[in-house]
Inverse folding.
């Protein structure tokens, strides 16, 4: 039992500098502010055109249980939430009152997304990314590269030397697992509902052609006319989605699996116009994290060899 507990703790809570998590914070929050922030116009349009929520999401139900709908579901309230969310995003980006800022920023995004999906039109591209934004509020994401860390160093008159923590890696591990579950469920759904016929290439051809014609994607139209290529890509898609989790249980494969994922998401957008940019950002961040870890371990091993050699000479 102790062996399992030690393995569990070494996976989730290794001693690590908070710098990688802080980089995740800066990139993720910056991307959300610049590119992924839910559209206020879409939410206001839904408010104006619908008298009631068709399929209220849990968060909206919870909020309206406290705040009456006639006060909460109004353009004025949504405008206020919008500006509070943006302000919290900026303070989270620079790392000022990081935990509180991250919580408010994530909650604001959750509210707008939950409201948009309360009209029976539910998708999933933002889910993993927005969960990660909330994880920032419960982790030391502001322990480095932040105003908070700068103020703390000035308070104790210390130089820049972020202390290693055992809580700086678990959000990164968690979002990696969430991506693995997302891809696995997508791949499994294809086989469950489409069977092995999904990999014959015909289904993928149809999907690509339909989306490419609708969105005027020349590359997609060309690819839809290549049956052999579509057949190969069908197999690649299923293998990638079902076995992405290998990068979780075998970290040595992470660089290859994550690179494959980056290519997969870029290709998906190029031929079908599916904008899973949130997944792409997370894949790039994870790839950078694992490469940095490889470099750190290599440097640690090299320093240990040098120390042993020096000890022998001495």
């Amino acid at each position: 039992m102790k062996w399992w507990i030690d393995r569990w703790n070494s996976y989730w809570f290794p001693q690590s500098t908070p710098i990688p998590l802080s980089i995740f914070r800066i990139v993720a929050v910056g991307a959300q502010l610049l590119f992924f922030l839910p559209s206020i116009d879409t939410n206001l349009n839904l408010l104006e055109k619908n008298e009631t929520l068709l399929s209220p999401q849990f968060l909206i139900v919870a909020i309206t249980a406290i705040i009456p709908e006639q006060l909460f579901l109004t353009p004025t309230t949504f405008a206020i939430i919008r500006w509070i969310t943006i302000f919290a995003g900026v303070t989270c980006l620079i790392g000022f009152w990081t935990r509180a800022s991250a919580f408010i920023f994530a909650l604001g995004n959750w509210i707008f997304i939950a409201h948009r999906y309360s009209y029976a039109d539910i998708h999933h591209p933002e889910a993993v990314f927005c969960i990660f934004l909330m994880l920032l509020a419960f982790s030391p994401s502001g322990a480095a590269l932040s105003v908070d860390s700068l103020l703390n160093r000035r308070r104790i008159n210390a130089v820049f030397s972020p202390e290693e923590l055992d809580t700086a890696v678990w959000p990164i591990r968690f979002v990696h697992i969430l991506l693995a579950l997302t891809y696995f469920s997508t791949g499994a759904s294809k086989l469950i509902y489409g069977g092995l016929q999904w990999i014959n290439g015909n289904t993928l051809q149809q999907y690509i052609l339909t989306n490419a014609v609708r969105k005027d994607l020349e590359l997609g139209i060309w690819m839809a006319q290549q049956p052999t290529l579509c057949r190969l890509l069908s197999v690649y898609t299923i293998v990638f989605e079902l076995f992405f989790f290998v990068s979780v249980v075998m970290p040595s494969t992470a660089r290859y699996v994550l690179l494959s994922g980056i290519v997969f998401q870029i290709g998906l957008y190029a031929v079908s116009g599916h904008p899973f940019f949130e997944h792409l950002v997370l894949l790039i961040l994870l790839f950078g994290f694992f490469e940095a870890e490889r470099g750190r371990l290599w440097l640690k091993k090299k320093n240990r060899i040098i120390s042993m050699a020096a000890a022998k000479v001495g």
